[in-house]
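Sample A.
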Amino acid sequence: ATLDVLDLGFSLKHEQIEALKSFIFKKDVFAALPTGYGKSLIYQLAPVVAKRMGLSENPLVVIVSPLIALMEDQVKEASKLGLTAMQLGVHTLKDIRKANCQLIFGSPEAWLMQSKWRELLSTKAFRDNLLGIVVDEVHLIYKWGKADKGH
């Protein structure tokens, strides 16, 4: 099956389709699209499409986001789409492993500074199912490194 013939129940814009195709085939994607265009939908749909196309049995996307409120909203939105989404710090490692998550949201600090999450990223089962890592709100990325510490 191709993305063009999968019945998602709604239409995607051309740019969303192209980004989604590239993402599920593990290519690097940079989607600089206007506010309200549906950028989040690209990675939210990736696990569904990858599974329907037989690319992965338990596809998973990691989302790195600097904003807690945004992560909370996106977990709720993903649930409305029928996806299993969890947030580091809200859900435990046991919850995430048991739930067979499709989307896992976490701050850069949570992913990098807590060993249990770094270890999760390095497990074979996790890596085998990982479609990709998304950096949301990328325009804030300069605040995540040395620039934030006055360097």
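Sample B, a different protein:
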Amino acid sequence: MEKLEFFRLRDTCAKVLEMSLQKLGVEKLSKDDVQKMQWEVLEAKIGSWIHFTRIDVKTLFAGQHIISDQIFEDMHSLRTVYFAEVN
């Protein structure tokens, strides 16, 4: 796999993760937005972020790991680097 394709795949996976979190109701906030929030509001959001991230890890990353195992079947060291880099 060429380096450019590798980075395209990584960027695609990042976009899929972002879209999945949005569908689950996680809003994208800037650093300034977070710093301006009252603690109680932020604490509630953090709880939901953790909850929804766990869902994504169980679904999206598990699927990506299966796909990377198939793509890099004969290249164990490259497979490990790819999966770590993409995720």
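Observation for Sample B: The two ends are 17 Å apart (CA to CA).
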